[in-house]
Every structure is written in C-alpha cells, then in structure tokens.
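Second opinion, please. Please look over this fold, written as tokens:

===
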Amino acid sequence: YSEIIEQIDRDVKRTHPDMHFFCGDSSFAKSNQESLKNILIIFAKLNAGIRYVQGMNEILAPLFFVFRNDPDDKNANFAEADSFFCFMELLSGFRDNFCQKLDNSAVGIQGTLSKLSQLVAKYDGELQRYLEITTEINPQFYAFRWITLLLTQEFNFADTIHIWDTLLSDPDGPQETLLRICCAMLILVRKRLLAGDFTSNLKLLQNYPPTNISHLLYVANKLH
C-alpha cells in the first residue's frame, strides 16, 4: 500500500491549492489534509477492487468541506467520520466508473458515456450528430472527466457545491441527474458547438465556460 499512500499524499496536497481550507501551512489546513488522507487510505484498504484512483480526492473535498464547516462544533468535530461514510455511499453508486475491469462493459465508464450520447441524441439530435459524426468528438474526449469527477473540475468550488446540492438530493440517486446536467451543459453552448470545428469544440468542452448554475440546473431538470 505504500505506493497508494504516496499517491494519496501527493493528490491531497494538490487539492484546491487556491483555498486556505485545504492548502497552506496553517495547522487547520494540515489537519484537514490529514483527514482527507485518512479517509482515502481507509477507503482504499476496504475496497480492494478499486483501491484508490487519482481524482477521488476531488470527490471527497466538497463532502469534507461541508461537514467541517458545520456551524455546530459538535458536528464539525466528526467531519472526518461523517465524510468517510458519505464518501463510501456516494462512490457505491459510481464505483463501476472507477473499476478498470468494467471500463468497456455496460455498467462501466464507457456504458455511462454511451448513455450520455443517447440522452443528447434524444433531446438535441442535431447537436449529437454534429459533435460525434461531423466533428468526430466522442463523449470520452470531454465527458470522461465530467462524469468520473462529478463535475468538480469544470466549475469553481462554490458552484460545485450548488450542483451537488441538486445531484445528491435526487431521490432516484445521482447517476441520472449527473447525465442530465452533462447534457444540459452541451445544450447551453450548442450555438458555439455547431459553429465550431474539432479543435475549438474540444477546447470549449475541456474548459467549460463560466455559466449561471441555477439556469443550468433548470435546463437539466427539464430533461426528465
């Protein structure tokens, strides 16, 4: 496990370097980093089939941030344990995306990307055909990161929390909601995509522009 622990250590140190909560020399930041490391190491030991996959720190960060900032100190003191159990629960719904053996199966990441493609085709066939046939941009070129890291890398931290509020409150679970949000992200920039070529579109989707999150979630909700 030494290699995994080293990888976790490196990734935790790189988690949101712009936020004093996660980074810096303060004892508070260091204590938060230790908590993130503890959670990820224990998760890796309990889930031998997946262990640790780079980027899991990004999924854990919003959970821990919310629990650690609980206005009630009694609750905040248990942020590490609470985050661990929520992280386990959240990943249980997405674990197949992290399992290499399932990558090309219907339940693995390729299956999830295929569902996104079908969703886009259902609500905007013109856009789906233009992206995948005309410009030959397959969902894995941009949506692999969107889906595996639950959009944490596409938006700023506050916007991520806003999106997750919707993602995690869906009684049917977050998977379908995530795909609807991804589909809405494409629809919101459809004009630019339909006017673009392979290079410009890939750049746009890999560096998604700042957007009104409430409107994005509104559009996603309409895709039921």
Observations:
- The chain has a mean pLDDT of 92.
- The radius of gyration is 18 Å.
- The longest helix spans residues 27-46.
